[in-house]
Amino acid sequence: MGRTVVVLGGGVSGLAASYHLSRAPCPPKVVLVEGSERLGGWIRSVRGPNGAIFELGPRGIRPAGALGARTLLLFLLF
């Protein structure tokens, strides 16, 4: 009987774990369990009115304080 691995959560980490487990040299049966209606966890893509796609998630840039201002400068330099 082969191994079965259950991955809890279909966020980015759970999806990556499932992907890499399924491509192992001797892959187990992978069962992904997600509690919501969609995969991706905190990350999701939305399309704006002009067709542009925006990636949303918990790790956005929050330009508060000196650290946030320095982070924004990295983007302004390019």
From TrEMBL:
Pfam families membership: Amino_oxidase
SUPFAM superfamilies recorded: FAD/NAD(P)-binding domain (SSF51905)
UniProt keyword annotation of Flavoprotein present: yes
Cellular-component GO terms for this entry: mitochondrial inner membrane
Organism phylogeny: Eukaryota, Metazoa, Chordata, Craniata, Vertebrata
UniProt key word Flavoprotein: yes
Gene Ontology BP term (one): heme biosynthetic process
An annotated Gene Ontology molecular function: oxygen-dependent protoporphyrinogen oxidase activity
Gene3D superfamilies named among the record's database cross-references: FAD/NAD(P)-binding domain (3.50.50.60)
Protein name: Protoporphyrinogen oxidase
PANTHER family the record matches: PROTOPORPHYRINOGEN OXIDASE
Keyword annotations from UniProtKB, A to Z: FAD, Flavoprotein
Residue stretches making up the Amine oxidase domain: 12-64
